[in-house]
Amino acid sequence: MSEVSTARFEVTVAESEAEHAALGAEIVARAIDAAVRARGSARVALSGGSTPGPVYRKLAQMALPLDRIDWFWVDERAGDPTSPRSNFRAARADLGLDRADAAARVHRMEAEDPDLAAAAARYEALLRRTFGVASAVAFDVMTLGIGDDGHTASLFPATGAAAIDDRLVAAIGAQPAKGLEARLTLTAPVLCEARTVLVLARGAAKQRPIASAWSEGPEDEVPARVLLRAQGRVVWLVDRDAYPTG
Ligand SMILES: O=C(O)[C@H](O)[C@@H](O)[C@H](O)[C@H](O)COP(=O)(O)O
């Protein structure tokens, strides 16, 4: 493992998938522990996709204070929570939160609602109730990924989604040309408010989008650039193949 830091984010390079999972789980667990010590509880926002799975499965093996953690989702694909495409289903299983004995407080996005805007509004209301109406919605730790097209969460390029700043949760229309179903997503203000953001990426296909995300430019072109203005700690946990060498 090797690490570099810039003024705005840290980069940790894992040498293997196992090390990537272990380091990712360690960062999340430490953020949870710090939150529980400081505020008595931890609020975690989870991304979907394929990369976080090993990190979540590693976390499931750790002694977490489950009765002090509220689990939320960064985004969700439109459809039933039992669908194989569901971020809720995947993360809940990988984290072992579906076990009856897991005193888990999970708060899924209701993306099965045909009225996604209404579902977005309900999730936003839940966030405001949880964090307090007058307070910022500052997750203690948030996992994100980055798409080959530079999206993060469900803020996709050339959709204007990265610029949404009047809501905490947005409904994103389907993009049939990209084979993307409609989605619910936290918006950039929430991503940028988190105390710790852990961006998980592995594989050579991520090199170019990561290099773009680390450079100034239009956020609508590379929505992961919103993290350049994040308020909290941002850690990019990548493997050697994903690390931009150019
Ligand atoms: O719902 C989703 O798919 C995720 O929230 C999405 O933003 C993901 O993080 C990226 O697409 C990267 O996905 P991979 O980890 O599979 O590369």
Can you tell me about this structure?
- This protein has 246 residues and is of the alpha/beta class.
- It has one domain: Rossmann fold (3-Layer(aba) Sandwich).
- The mean pLDDT is 95.
- The protein binds 6-phosphogluconic acid (6PG).
- Keywords: Hydrolase.
- Its EC number is 3.1.1.31.
- Belongs to the glucosamine/galactosamine-6-phosphate isomerase family. 6-phosphogluconolactonase subfamily.
Which key phrases capture this entry?
246 residues, alpha/beta, Rossmann fold, eight-stranded mixed sheet, three-stranded antiparallel sheet, globular, binds 6-phosphogluconic acid
How are the SSEs placed, and which strands pair?
Layout: E1 2-5, E2 10-14, H1 17-39, E3 42-46, H2 52-59, E4 69-73, E5 75-77, H3 87-94, E6 105-107, H4 116-131, E7 141-144, E8 169-172, E9 183-186, H5 188-193, E10 196-201, H6 207-213, E11 233-239
Parallel strand pairs: 2-11, 3-4, 3-7, 4-6, 7-10, 10-11
Antiparallel strand pairs: 1-2, 5-9, 8-9
Helix pairs in contact: 1-2
The protein binds 6-phosphogluconic acid.
Enzyme class: hydrolase
Protein name: 6-phosphogluconolactonase
GO molecular function, one term: 6-phosphogluconolactonase activity
